[in-house]
């Protein structure tokens, strides 16, 4: 509900127009529902038992992110793999990180949301320490807090590669750390001003299919 | 192999750090050109021109105009020209510490040195008895003035009547500034692309040490804004911010709007200007200036003057 509220709030404050922004707005509006359905679906007992038997992995956890030079943005992340996805090397995932759960919590920092869909390739999947590369795409939106600033860019597409390591000391637990680069950062002439290029992230994940 | 790699790395870093810019005598950086306020301060500073004001002079509004990073008093020369021979307002053009001198002096200066020139003029005017002072800042002077407020400077001094900020920077447009603490020592300095005329009134080279100082200042002020900054009682804040700006991201205006409160609790006055120039009030030596740019400049000068004269 909280996430849905955020989407609706953003939809009201967004001044975009045209077909692409409409699609993005629709996606934006539905992402909260999508994530809720995803969690519900993946964690339904029967499905989980079946998938676990098939060697599927569904990691759920928290993602802590810091833009170098700007905000802390934290949130939730999910990633899924099974033996058919490059022998459990390839993960697909979704993440939501927001400054509302970071720098903007009880402060005047700008409230901004990042919705990410990602593909991750994990090297040496059977080892404790696994190098990883990830590519995220998604949508960024910032609540500038007043109609006065409607003419400033406050939303846009996200695209970012990440490079890092995953540490899995025992089976259901994973800790990942990576360095990412936003390809669509703002530059004063276009793009949201609080979308910074370089970020670091840490995720603490638990395989919820593991029995 | 490891030793070889380490030696190569150290050599690379040493070479990178020892890089010196190719400064010429035609540049402000070179030690032959200096800001004219250093030779004739009485032409630029009210505290030097009228050190013992009459009661009428002491009540005349004084605008202290402060320039941006790498600039000089030149940045507000057009405002002085526009004011002409008016006697109902005085203009002090402050040269920030470390600026308008030499590359080496700039390199060793800190943001507190930059700011100190503002407080020195402010305190001279206050001591002389001037009662109606407004602070006008462009670009980096924006955060320098905001830091004075957040640090409580004006609880110990006469509060200014107005804070007027033109294209203040809190968030840089070039986001790689945030990487300067990491990459700066390897770069040594940054070469700017500006005209030969601008080279005489703006530093051409930006030492990484000063970029680190700028980054420190911006981070400090951004965090202060996140916590909230209250203006002194009786002070107003007006921000003029270009909608597009290659140096100070327009989002800076949003952070100031959200982060500063008047003593009455209201927000500051923020006006977005239809311009894509940084410090759109300085048009001399700028290429491709249009009639619209001149009109915007004049309108803003008129608005600044009206604020300084307002009771």
TrEMBL record, chain B:
Keyword entries, A-Z: Signal
PROSITE patterns, A to Z: PROKAR_LIPOPROTEIN (PS51257)
Domain of life assignment: Bacteria
Signal peptide coordinates: 1-18
Keyword Signal: yes
The protein's name: Carboxylesterase
């Amino acid at each position: 509900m909280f996430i849905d509220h955020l989407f609706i709030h953003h939809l009201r404050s967004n001044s975009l127009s045209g077909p692409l922004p409409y699609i993005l707005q629709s996606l934006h509006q539905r992402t909260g529902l999508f994530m809720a359905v995803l969690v519900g679906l993946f964690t339904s007992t029967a499905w989980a038992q079946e998938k676990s038997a098939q060697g599927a992995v569904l990691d759920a956890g928290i993602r802590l992110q810091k833009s170098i030079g700007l905000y802390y943005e934290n949130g939730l992340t999910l990633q899924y793999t099974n033996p058919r996805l490059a022998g459990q090397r390839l993960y697909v995932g979704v993440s939501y990180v927001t400054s509302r759960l970071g720098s903007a919590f009880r402060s005047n920092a700008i409230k901004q949301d990042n919705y990410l869909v990602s593909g991750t390739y994990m090297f040496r999947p059977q080892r404790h320490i696994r190098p990883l590369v990830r590519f995220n795409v998604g949508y960024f939106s910032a609540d500038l807090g007043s109609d006065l600033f409607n003419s400033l860019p406050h939303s846009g597409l996200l695209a970012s590669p990440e490079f890092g390591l995953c540490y899995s000391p025992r089976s259901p637990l994973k800790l990942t750390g990576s360095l990412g680069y936003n390809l669509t950062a703002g530059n004063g002439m276009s793009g949201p001003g609080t979308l910074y290029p370089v970020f670091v992230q840490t995720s603490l994940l638990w395989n919820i299919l593991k029995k | 192999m490891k030793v070889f790699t380490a030696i190569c790395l150290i050599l690379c870093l040493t070479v990178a750090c020892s890089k010196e810019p190719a400064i010429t005598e035609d540049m402000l950086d070179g030690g032959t050109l200096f800001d004219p306020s250093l030779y004739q301060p009485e032409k630029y500073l009210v505290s030097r021109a009228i050190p013992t004001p009459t009661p009428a002079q002491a009540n005349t509004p004084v605008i202290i105009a402060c320039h941006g990073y790498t600039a000089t008093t030149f940045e507000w020369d057009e405002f002085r020209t526009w004011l002409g021979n008016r006697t109902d307002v005085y203009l002090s053009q402050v040269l920030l510490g470390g600026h308008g001198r030499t590359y080496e002096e700039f390199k060793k200066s800190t943001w507190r040195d930059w700011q100190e020139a503002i407080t020195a003029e402010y305190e001279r005017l206050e001591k002389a008895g001037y009662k109606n002072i407004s602070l006008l800042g462009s670009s980096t002077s924006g955060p320098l003035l905001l830091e004075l407020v957040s640090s409580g400077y004006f609880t110990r001094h006469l509060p200014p009547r107005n804070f007027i900020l033109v294209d203040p920077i809190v968030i840089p447009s070039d986001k790689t500034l945030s990487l300067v603490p990491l990459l700066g020592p390897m770069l040594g300095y940054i070469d700017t692309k500006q005209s030969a005329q601008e080279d005489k009134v703006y530093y051409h080279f930006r030492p990484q040490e000063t970029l680190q100082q700028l980054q420190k200042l911006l981070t400090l002020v951004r965090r202060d804004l996140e916590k909230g900054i209250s203006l002194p009682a009786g002070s107003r804040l007006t921000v003029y911010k270009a909608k597009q700006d290659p140096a100070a991201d327009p989002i800076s205006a949003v952070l100031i709007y959200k982060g500063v409160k008047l003593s009455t609790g209201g927000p500051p006055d923020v006006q977005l200007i239809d311009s894509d120039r940084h410090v759109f009030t300085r048009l001399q030596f700028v290429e491709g200036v249009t009639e619209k740019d001149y009109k915007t400049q004049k309108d803003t000068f008129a608005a600044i003057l009206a604020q300084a004269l307002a009771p």
